[in-house]
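Appendix B. Raw example, untouched.
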Amino acid sequence: MKKININTATPDKPKSKIMIIYTGGTFGMAHDAHGVLVPFDFSLILEHLPALRNLFLDLTVISFDNPIDSSNIQPEHWQTIAAIVYENYNSQDGFVVLHGTDTMAFTASALSFMLPGLRKPVIFTGAQLPISEPRSDARENLITSLEIATAKKEGKAIVPEVCIYFGNELLRGNRSKKTESMHFDAFQSENYPPLAKAGVKIEFNETLIHSTNENKLKLLSKLDSSIAILKLFPGITDATVSSVLKISKLKAVVLETYGSGNAPTDKWFLDLLKATISKGVIVLNISQCPGGMVVQGKYETSRILQEIGVLSGGDMTTEAAITKLMVLLGEFGIEKAKEVIGLSLAGEITM
């Protein structure tokens, strides 16, 4: 890891101490002498963003030695990011994580479950255009994320949770989903309102912000990725379903159903699910719809799923469901995961 300290308050006392964790992604790319996009040198950040001086911050930048395209992000990278937050928690007022957009919602969701007891901001952001581009969204995204990470009320962080800031909106990390690849508003949170909107001022909706009753930050770093996603579609065959449900050492399946949790009632399909559940595998019902929620039993086609032991994922996103299962299975095992999966651990599900 490369570590750089940048004090934009000198010679005055800094307003806050913020750690920037740069993992990779579009944000930190710049053109070299040959016009090729290469990872950005954060020691030169003030040249690209002189407005940082006006924030009066003591910044510590930690960069991955080899910046990662977010399509290559793996659970071990979540473990690294979470460990950095945990190890530097007492010395910092907040954290900003610069991350590629493609898997940002997965990483933000994972950290929300890996860091129970969090009482400081961990704000994920990135960019659709590199910081070196004239029209880049990187500058505004970073500046506003830093402001959010430093925001306090009565000495306490206003946003003590894992969030994504993008396109002028602050979203809960485990409620977010990337929905746009060509526009600057890349993320949406269909089932939970924005925690803040940035205009001339940053307007926080404090009643929506998640807070914890735990007094001490914990690090849950054991992850188990023995999980599969089975997305239903008209015409899906028993061979396709069977190939997923019979994966060796499978512990959980996220079943992406239609509408409010509906699925085919074909005997072969239900028999495969029953056989899988009978082996102790968790089958979690998540809607394919970006908004709305699973209500098992609302229709006949979902009532049968409930009867055979499929668990409801409520209004969780697929990203939240996958990462929550990884943490629960890794830390507590299958039986405890079954008990806890339907509970709200970090504001990821409406109770």
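End of appendix B.
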